[in-house]
Amino acid sequence: MIWEVFRQERPGEYHAHCGNVHAPDRELARQFAAIQHGRRKPTNSLWVVPRDEIGEIDAEDVAFGGTTDKSYRWATTYSTAGADASEVAESEDDQADAEQRRGES
Fold first, then answer.
1. What SS3 class is residue 58?
2. Deepest of 11, 37, 93, 105, by most Cβ within 10 A of its Cβ?
3. Which ranges are annotated Acidic residues under compositional bias (predicted)?
4. What is the CA radius of gyration of the chain?
5. What superfamily does domain 2-53 belong to in CATH?
6. What is the three-class DSSP state of 64?
7. Is 29:63 a contact under the CB 8 Å cutoff?
8. Long-range pairs for 97-104 at CB < 8 Å and ≥24 separation?
9. Model pLDDT, residue 57
């Protein structure tokens, strides 16, 4: 049976896949994982999981995505021509004035 091994280097970090071990039961898989993957680098903990228990979702199963254009998060993306954007224009003017004053000193 194949067991996948995930390693955490320091407390609080994510576990990352570091390889697998072949073992007939959970206890031997844990021992093999500790020997093969836990002693090579600093290790805080190991997760040892049967490969059959790991589920996969790929692009054929579901459409991943969403918008990759996140420019809507920035005020500078919006047009300052409208009356609704007057605060943005004032803020940009204030920033330009501050940069100019910094350059003069």
1. coil
2. 37
3. 87-97
4. 27
5. Phenylacetic acid degradation B (3.10.20.520)
6. coil
7. no
8. none
9. 86
